User: Fold these one by one.
Assistant:
Number 1:
Amino acid sequence: MKKTGTGNTDKNKRSRKAKGRLLPFAFIGPHLILFTIFVLIPIIYGLVISFTRWDFINSPVWAGLENYREILFNRESTYHIQFMDGLKNTLLFVVLNVPVSILVPLLFALLLNMKPRGSKIFQSILYLPTLFSISAVGIIWMQMLNKRFGLISMFGVKHSVTTTYPYVWIALIIMSVWWTMGTNMVIYQAALSGVSKDLYESAELDGAGALKRIWYIALPSIRFQLLYTLVITVAGSFNVYGQPLMLTQQGVGGAPKVNVLIMYIKNLAFGSGQSIAGMASAMAIILGAFILVVSFIQFRLVSKDE
Amino acid sequence: MKKKTRASRWASCTILTLVAAVWVLPIVWAVFTSFKTETEIKTKGFGFLPKVWTTENYINILQNTDNAPIVRWFLNSMFMAVTVAVLSIIIVSLTAYGYSRLKFKYRDQLFYTIMAISLFPSVINIIPLYKIISVFDWVNNAMAMIIPGLGAVTNIFLVRQFSLGIPKEFDEAARIDGAGEWRIFTMVILPMLKPVLTVVALFSFTSVWNDFLWPTIVFNDVEKMPLTAGLQLLQGAYGGFQLGPILAAACIAMIPTFLLYLFAQKYFLQSMSLSAGVKG
């Protein structure tokens, strides 16, 4: 691209123009670099690695679809067994957790929307657990559910809740909802307070009861927020890790009772012994694909409704 | 009709009182129990409140510098969370300004591409990200907690959306007065972004303070790790046989975000509606 300039003025103009073109980069550049190194490259890298045999140390060896075949179809393989177990528990968590994590905060938001006395305080309290880390929350619940000294012993519970089915699942879901539902609640609440009062009043004049008003006015008005929280909650539930790890891990070095996919992925890649990062990456890609497909289906289903 | 609404208000008030009482129970129980003596915790038929208030659990846990240096962890977490909050404000405001108020070719296309890429589930990134971190020699280093998150896009989207709502006339007036792009950014737009940037700072702090999976991967040096990763070890070191100290540790871990919430509650609550309400 060598073109001889004609005189000084032209050069100046061009350098000013170049400066103008570079100016946006001064603003977006730093982030663009960080994004490339820590988001874009890892995604591509992760995809490539999933087709290789790799242990983090030596250079990866191309393996084609071997990892995927092993995980998905080789019934003898421990990776297949781990994957199926992790998938089963992860899916069970999604199926149990999502409806409760949508309905409970929705109910609370509807109650708060009636503006009872002290609704601000109720809101603050209900949102509170969301602020804490899963390790602190997990410790509290683990100790609370201690059958000998915990809070439940006060109520005469004799079962070892965190080690017996199906109690361990019930505890897991209750703790998860307690910990995470604040976000959804506040989203619904903000949306509900934006619904025009006139709509409610005219419906009331037409003789619509409270349930009808909720069903025909409140819920359709917050449709977008319901979809948004559904997608976020489903994706978040697929990524479950901290809750079962903290709650169902029994004392010193005990294996968690409920093993989810991310635990297996983490252990394969970063556990003691030789790393099997390629295999772990393939598992991560399968989980990621699951999340993407499910999110996409949800969007399609709802946008078809419009 | 008025009567009816009053009755339903009473009903909702009653239900919410019960629910709220159940909701705080775990936290209140943890706080009270952390002030009990170990013998009282382990005695059958105890009450909810401590009979004798004691700080022995806190002293015990704070003095353990051997396998659970909780003060060290607390300071590590604080350093990471504060640094991320500050850097986030800088990066996010600069970038959001670029994508909302500067004019350049393919600006919106570039932004939406970045946005779409960032929506890929983050499970995929963890393993390669660890490799990248180890290339930078950031394993067991606070940098591993600070830098990668700055590449995220969600907060930029939030601030960009906010900034798009500011009328063009502000920049134009400043430009006529001879202000350059940098002056417009710092003197005109930045002050108007303050509320949304406060939200960004609070959320960056909280998310780093509470991050769990990533720190348990990049830290194995007990001295270097943040509090969340440390607490998990604590479960192993004390869990099962000593309840007091471990509950005290959990309470200590909850203090900073609780204090932030106490003083900046409105920002926490409004941010949620900001992020979900963009299209609604």
Number 2:
Amino acid sequence: MIAEIGHAALIIAFTLAVIQALVPLVGAQVGKVRWINLATPVARGQLLFIAIAYACLTYSFLINDFSVRYVATTSNTALPLLYKISGVWGAHEGSLLLWALLLSSWTVVVSIFSKGIPKIMLARVLSVMGMVSVGFISFMLFTSNPFVRLFPAPVDGRSLNPLLQDPGLAIHPPMLYMGYVGFSVAFAFSIAAMIDGKLDAAWARWVRPWTNIAWVFMTLGIALGSWWAYYELGWGGWWFWDPVENASLMPWLVGTALIHSLAVTEKRAAFKSWSVLLAIFAFSLSLLGTFLVRSGVLTSVHAFATDPARGVFILVFLIIVVGGSLVLYAWRAPALRSVGQFSIVSRETGLLVNNVILATMAGTVLLGTLYPLVLDAMGVGKISVGPPYFNQVMLWLAIPLYLMMGIGFFLRWKKDTVSRLSRKIVIPFAVSLVIAVLLPLLFAPEQHGLTFIGSILASWVALTALLWLLNSTTSPFKLPASTWGAVIAHLGMAVTVTGITLTSVYSHEKDVSLAPGESYEISDYQFKFIGVTEVGRDNYIAYQGIVEASEAGKHLVVLHPEKRTYSQSSMPMTEAAIDAGLFRDLFVALGEPLGGGSWSLRIYHKPFVRWIWMGALIMSFGGLLAAMDSRYRRSRKVKLEGANNEK
Amino acid sequence: MMTKWIGIALLMLSVQLHAAIEMYQFEQPEHEQLYKKMIDELRCLVCQNQNLSASNAGLAQDLRQQTYEMVSKGQSQQQIVDYMTQRYGDFVLYRPPVKLSTVLLWFGPIIMLLMGLIVLMMSLKKRKQAMDEALSEEQQLRMKQLLDKGEK
Amino acid sequence: MKNSLPLIAFVLLVILLGVGLTLDPREVPSPFIGKPAPTFDLPKLYASTDSISVAEMKGKVWLLNVWASWCGACRAEHQVINRLVKNHQIEIIGLNYKDNADQAKQWLQELGNPYASIAVDHDGRTGIDWGVYGVPETFVVDKKGIIRYKNIGPVYQQDVDNTLLPLINQLQQESS
């Protein structure tokens, strides 16, 4: 019964989404005020019914209704409560419902926080977002219905993949989806501007906070995915350039270019067509990611569905949304030409160079991800493109990026000269070079070319970011939130690259076989294997290893790596034991019993690995600060005051 | 189409979801380094989204054993790569070989970057030129105005 | 014109993805097509002191069918293999891959033994030499000992009718 209600709610939401997509848009074209004003209430109605549908699905999970096929394939009576709730988005159909829910939520939030935006533009924005909703809801209704029944209903469900039975599941997908969906706002604003035929600094001021927030969620989502893979998969890796990982990195790279481009569009009324194009690309890449994960075109450990039929549907959706927007761009781009002028040496140019590098990085990830498909489609043969390619190529692109990040702060808007720039840069660069060379020499266990590269990039960006705070004539504390946000975000980048460099160069790993009582030492850390016991929990039993870790003889912690066998599957699963630290992680994974009480163990020492995600957190905080700049809220206050005064 | 992979799927069901831990002894540290590098850069053909290092598929275990034996015999990286590609094609390499068909892949990024920067510089120069021309037109107009004024 | 560049690039991308929907990214084509079959000299399943080698098959068109008793898809294709041998007198050598001899014999007793001989690949080394990465797989070898075709996955009747039989007939016409 509940599932049918959910299904019906989804159908109603679909109808409302169609109305939301068409009526305000037409109304804006022909000037029908009633139709224009329909946008907000219809969007709210759509959210209501999507929420009802979502609640129905969640309820089915909670009451173990295995007559709903999706619940039967994804859940199980023994599944802990947290995973019954988060398992709703654990597979294809449910994750689409989550997408739709977040999309309609963002739409309503945009309709609320839009006091300064002209009604016609708002109507167009909400309509475009409605079109995307139509796409996702129809995808569900026609090919991926979460409410399909299963007869006869099985006694118990197949359960959630043990890898997903982890708190990481509860946060990583929603965060990531908030990012993907958030970029639809900038996309919708771009379409609205193109239809309108003009775009000004005010437009950029409206779009920036939404884009910054979307970027923040995207950053967090990617970082969470990386962190989760690290501790869950048990081999110490944190990024594998898997097609689905790449599918999230591409919009992030373009989104980063977008937030910089929007800054210029707001401040200097320049880069208009760049901003529009980047907004289209960022969201298109989000949709492309959806396609790649669900169509079976690429193999991925993440693939939700490998169904070419579903793939066709999404491809058609992509053609309509992305193709339509690019046709609009080809037609309207001349109208968006910026009149802002700036000389060749200027901060504007610096930011354009930054955009080119970021776009190249995104293009490179796309190239590597799709290249095997290209060769296969041409009948040339099958190749694989993996970490060895991406790590090498992206490193080479990261170097100019980080260098530009530092230079950017010193460039003057509109007009600067090479001589002035060089004068300003020389000393900071020399200082950062000295720091970059000294730190590894003093503290690193051994020297390595990569260490110096990472170290110069990190110290250059960190130093220039701090200088930006200190160099301006105003006191740092009087600087606007957006400046602080930028500084902090750049610092975050420095922290992340430090983590990546140090963990890549100085990690140690060893497979050992230890009898009870035996020890092994890595990098001054001793690991003493005590033994293995058996433990049982809600839905699994496990062999639990006991390993005492000490540093230079001093006891640190007892680690409990586990090898779990879940009741619903015969596949054993490793849960590594990690002693997390600010400057290093100690990681132990349990292998196989070797007889006589001995077991094989994998031991890792991973220095600075947490800095990778800490940097991402710092970056996100910076982005959040920038989004909350009072500038964006000032216009509302002024408007309200003006309205009050008129009374 | 999906049923075609039942056999492979069954093979996969015996896969354990954790990295394999094997005790291999190496005579020289360079051997161990080469071994680790190879199993990192070779793709598992069963669990196709893992390298040989992470995969615990039966075939991955066999190929790791094979790699270990080759490394211990003193074979070079190229010899090991050749062995694998002879049997499984380039698909088994996560580092795509540089050949005619992959030239665009390996040089694409630098080409994209250079082209992007060149196009950028060219459009900035064009814009500057247009600005200068417009300016000089403006200057000419002003000069004319001044001259006209002067003549009166 | 330059404003249409993104659109043109997108169209190319869509074409690529459309073609991609018809392909199978998991399938690994064999690098042995057109190359000599790798040698092996393995003990037979039913006469473990005897051996079967690739060299013995020179001058004949034959199939190598890789199978195991633990493989469900092998079970599914076995009737097709049986029919192929019965109706067309094709010579098929079985490669018993990483299996237990008793279980293999039991399996054949239950499902039928169409093989001219069965080579036992106990540790999978021969499989690796042939580029086997899943079970079942079937290779077609010509009179000169060159591998001409590899069927990845189970052999279905339509594969027999549309691909294998025409190819085998063509190869029979060729000289050795």
Number 3:
Amino acid sequence: MPARTDVRRRLTLTLTGFGALTVIVMLLAPLVGSTSISLSRVFDRSIPFSDNVDAQVFFVARLPRVIAAALVGAGFALSGVVFQGLLRNPLASPDTLGVAAGATLGAMLALTAHADFTIFGIGVVPLTSFAGTIGALAIVMAIAFARRRGTSSTVLLLAGIAIGALLAAAGRFIQYFADVTDTFKTVQWLMGSLDVGSYAPIVASLVPFGIACAGFVTLPRVLDLISLGDAAAEARGVDVVRMERIALVSASLSTGAAVSLGGPVYFVGIIVPHIVRLIVGADHRLVLPASALFGASFLIVCDLIARTIVAPVEMPVGIITAIIGGPFFLWLLFRGR
Amino acid sequence: MAAVSRQIGLRAKGLGLILGLALSLQPSALFAQARRIISIIPSTTEMLFAMGAGDRVIAIGTYDKYPPEAQKLPRVGALVDPNVEQILQMRPDLVVVYGTQTELKRRLERANIPYYSYSHQGLPDIFSTMRSLGMRVGMAAQGEALAARLERQLAAIRAKVANRPRPKTLLVMGREPGALRNIYASGGVGFLHDMLEAAGGTDALADIQRQSVDVSNEMVLARAPDVIIELRYTDEAINRADLDVWNRVSAVPAVKNHRVIVLTGDQFVVPGPRVADAVAKMAAAIHPEVGW
């Protein structure tokens, strides 16, 4: 089977290349920042951690940030790939089906109602935004599964857009009645931030990310077949309805976890899958892992730029992802033409 | 043509008023006393009531929460959503608007309703606004008295902290509850910065020429403030657990020495007549060793 050997070789090559990029970026990013720290002081055990500024800059400010960027980047990129494949629409993104609008609504409610509690060290805003995701997902699923035979991607797409618009309107309704200072906080949340400041939200996000990944590993072949059409996929023995549900739940959980961890920087989820496809081709066995790795590296680098380019202040990371990702994507797009 | 010439006429009239104001020694004489005032900005509403013009105010803005006697008045929108129709219907003879409300100003001009445009930057602007607003409504003496009283109060606070060390203070205007995320703090300009300096602190972000600065965890650690003041604009009870999040950056002197202080009240967000009270609260937080 030369074809299979070829795919295996390409998979190894892809994973090695993108994996190496991710590892290098993850190792270098915590070393760079708006302040200079001494690595020997960071790891100096003779200074108690509670007094060691360099160690706290490294372990409290930078490292969680890099890990969060990796998870959020990978999460958005993966759900972008799946939504684009499932809906057979290159414009689909993590927020296409209203899942992200649900997350935003959840965050807004917490900020406006001045809710103030933590569960296992996780603040109220990530919790409510994740709850918003689940709520939106429940509505989309109810619509998608109302038909016994599954639903066409067009219906799903339109229903998702309608729900997204509805939830966004609910958000604006709350904004309208909110106080100016609360509105300011919401705007700030909407710009996205990876400065998580502790490991608790990262650890918590691993639960939905883990479930999502368990779903993602079953998807590559299915997404390849779905791209040929539902009928073709079924003819090859794919339980389309069941696999659609798995895809929908995994991508939504991944989106929810990413939004609650880093805010709505969805651009990563649209652009990264396309960039990766332009590099490795359309085979989802390659696209899915490569997107996860490239999404992680891309967001780590964007955040690194965001926190250093206008030092001592910072730029919202969402601005950097668009400024870098947009032209890079255009270059890739026209390079081959 | 008629509309155009009317507009030009209005502009000329406006210019005349400004010139008159600049040249006249008795500028208040230029204006008839305003009898039906609408103020949609919290600080000017407070100023009008504090200088004794409260009985002439016929409507206020959505967010105007002080003084209590103003609360029975109808509300006609605020900075981003003024209800122009309602404002016109109430036949005001003066509308106090914010400088950025250009659309509202244009519509008031068209309806031939005079307005007073106000914007705040630093602490001194509060007092100059009180004086000029007093003049504009025909209560120049009262406006002057109010501004002078507050200036005296501030001078007294400044004198009290004058010879004391000025701790580096991070003035946090907001953050995500239960987390050290999306922190924003006062930069080196604006009335909150001026208030902090008047209260005997050194702004930890004084070199950043912005009213509001997004502050990362790294920045908090790097700036190492001696005091952290968190402002809360509502009088909700303070959740102690929420303040424990600062312990994650325990290397910061303010955290190590238990000098993270919460000050509550909307006087910190309204640059009006309660500013001296707000500065006094800040000064007491920064300099607890001085008897207040």
Number 4:
Amino acid sequence: MKEIWIITKRELQAYFDSLMAYILLILFLGFSGFFTWIYGSDIFFVKQANLQVFFNIAYWTLFFFIPALTMRLLSEENRSGTIELLLTKPISEWQVIVAKFLAALLLIVAALLLTLPYYITVSSLGNIDNGAVFSGYLALILVSGMYIAIGLFTSSVTNNQIVTYLLALSIGIFFQIIFQMLSTNLTGILGGITDYLSINSHFDSMTRGVIDSRDLVYFFSVMLLGLVFSESMLMKKRSV
Amino acid sequence: MDIVIENMTKTYGRQKAVDNISLQVKTGEVLGFLGPNGAGKTTTMKAITSFLIPDSGKIFIGNISVNDNPQEAKKNIGYLPENNPLYEDMPVIDYLQFCAGIEGVAKDKINDKVRKVIQTCGITREKHKKISELSKGYKQRVGLAQALIHDPEVLILDEPTTGLDPNQIVEIRELIKKIGKEKTVILSSHILAEVEATCDRIMIINKGKIVADGTAEELRGQAQGSEMLKVTIEDGSLDDIFKGLQLLNTVELVDFADKSTQTFQVKSKPGQSSRREVFKLCVEKGWTLTQLTFVETRLEDIFRELTLEN
């Protein structure tokens, strides 16, 4: 556990040293702030004191930003050979994967914490549903975790960061859009499966304040799959 | 801690990188892996550090099996990989602290260890610089510092002196020798002089197989069939001396080494020595013998002989 935290700290340090963290925080706050408060069907049109609008915008912003955050994580280690350095220390592949996952997740959590003024503002405008806000934030963190796990996996597949980014985006787009589109056109079992695979149904209910174990199982299993696949990619490189 | 490898084989595709190697290195021994590029040196080292999983065979560090308990085995190993990969965006001191941390050095001892290793490797003035700003030689020292940080019992160094200037090479060699007195060290190189200078034992690997194993002297002895002498004789005509030497009955072959100084190379018949005969000849003819030296078979020759095709 101690080793995981040491690697996580190093990864976070690397995010801040490379300016990646600052760029992400500024862009994320800029985008979500702009579309939540100023432009389009913003938060004032809802005529209700809730953060639904913000959650939906953050949901899309994170979809594009997270692959940029994760594309470096393993591909850079593989490219420069530092992975050999890490894996010949007394730590396991799983610890490396979890540490990197945590680093990206912590950065996202920090970005989300910085949007707390939104909550404070809206709550002073009217009677806000605190439960829904809490489960909405939880949903954002879970979606982020899912995309980080996917990004980590694509990062373990290739040494090219651009390919990693695009690959993560194209896997992500299935969960984000394609499964949902399929589920509206399909019926029966296939419709049910694609509906369950789409993030939307899980995310929407959570932002409305419903925390269902089915949704949690969904998010955690995708995360776990991503991490396990990344680990096996690392292992595979050693026995080739 | 001893390192023991039993019948290790590793193939990449159809090519056998390491072919059924067995070896043992004892505590306090510095073993040099020597071999041409692609001989299997790096593969063997990666397998010892458990970074590569061999197809078959067993590796032990002390009594710990690398195959069954890699985490425990890795604790005892300090490893400097080939090409010395480092986190270039980190300052030296942060990097070493990070390494000490994941090696499991206790928190209150980290600063001490880092300070010590910075001193040993001579990077005191560079410790606050970013690694990417360092020259290759200093990067190599950081790599070495990283391998030494947790006082490992076993050191695996893959080409430790590449990129260093002659002074640094000597320093690093001294360092390795010093460390090697108490620890088990394996280092690889294709520079023969280096292996000869630092290692107690030399192992020549070619095409995944061990082709020679022993001290530098032993290897020379093996390769040296007949005695070679370098002889300089003055106060006589070149031709007379040449003929005189040629006629000695212990001599097989005489060659001009340098005509201007009248130096000859004399090869004796197998198992015989011509030193006394050469001296007697000079006394008899009234020539002056100004040089009579052994020509040692150089390690280079042994190496070439063993690793060249056919």
